[in-house]
Specification:
Layout (H helix, E strand, L loop, with lengths): L1 H41 L21 H9 L2 H32 L5 H9 L10 H10 L6 H25 L3 H9 L4 H12 L1 H17 L2 H6 L8 H6 L9 H36 L1
């Protein structure tokens, strides 16, 4: 009887694992099929793009769409803007969130729980609701078409999750380490960047990658708060290939693949550290 229960339990465990793996396979296919279709379209001749049934592998590989995309639009400028804004916004968000997370983790004060709730509240609000009044304010103080203005607009979307995640990492750092550092003559600033910063490195890596991708993929803020082509980001540059009467399928897919490459390369380089950061964050959270 006991062996039957063990066997039944083992079968249930195998069945659950198979269902999970099947779900992950289906999810992976759903994600990869549009990317594969975009890649194939970007290297397919224009007269074969709308052929039915479509070819899974193009009969003739051409790179005319990439050449057209980079010649018709300042794509390198768009890529530079996206890279600069993603890196700059991630660094500023990290600096602010690390200070805030350390304060919330190590200091006890009245209304702390309410303050944490207030910090997380923007995550529950659609950002589009504030864009019209923000546009009026930024227009009056001259922050339209500026890097500083865009970074300031990105921060409210980046900071809440960053503060919450880093606080969980700092909570797990023993306070005795800080006390020993204070005895050795360190101040709060030294403790934060010599003790807390290395201990929270997995969370910092995860936050930097997540914030980088969020800013890189952002579209609406860049579209509304930049009117000069030289300030547009990659996502808005891709949007330029959509006209009122036509859709340039080849160039827009070529530009989309070009927009994916930097993020894919960065993720492949640091994927092991990123996965470790996510797992440790889930455990400590």
């Amino acid at each position: 009887m006991r062996s039957q229960r063990l066997w039944s339990s083992r079968l249930n465990s195998i069945f659950i694992r198979m269902c999970i793996q099947l779900f992950l396979i289906v999810l992976t296919v759903i994600i990869l099929v549009p990317i594969y279709n975009s890649l194939i379209t970007s290297i397919t001749p224009e007269n074969q793009i709308n052929r039915y049934p479509p070819n899974l592998i193009p009969e003739l590989v051409v790179f005319d769409h990439y050449i057209h995309a980079f010649k018709s639009q300042p794509m390198f400028r768009f890529i530079f803007n996206s890279l600069f804004l993603s890196i700059a916004a991630s660094i500023v968000a990290l600096f602010i969130s690390l200070q805030a997370a350390y304060t919330l983790s190590r200091h006890q004060f009245k209304g702390k729980a309410l303050l944490i709730l207030f910090i997380l509240f923007p995550m529950m609000m659609p950002g589009i609701t504030n864009l019209i009044p923000l546009y009026n304010v930024f227009s009056n103080i001259g922050l339209i078409n500026t890097y500083i203005g865009l970074i300031l607009l990105y921060l409210p979307a980046l900071l809440p999750f960053a503060i919450w995640l880093l606080k969980n990492f700092i909570d797990s750092v023993p306070y005795e380490l800080e006390e020993a550092s204070f005895i050795d003559g360190c101040n709060r600033f030294s403790v934060l960047y010599r003790i807390i910063f290395p201990a929270a490195m997995p969370g910092i890596v995860a936050i930097c990658i997540i914030n980088f991708v969020l800013v890189w993929n952002e579209f609406l803020v860049s579209l509304l708060f930049t009117t000069e082509k030289s300030m547009r980001t990659m996502t808005v540059g891709i949007f330029n290939f959509i006209g009122f009467n036509n859709l340039q399928q080849g160039p827009i897919n070529a530009a989309s693949i070009a927009a994916m490459l930097p993020v894919i390369i960065i993720f492949l380089i640091i994927r092991e550290r990123f996965m470790k950061s996510i797992i440790e964050g889930a455990i400590k959270g």
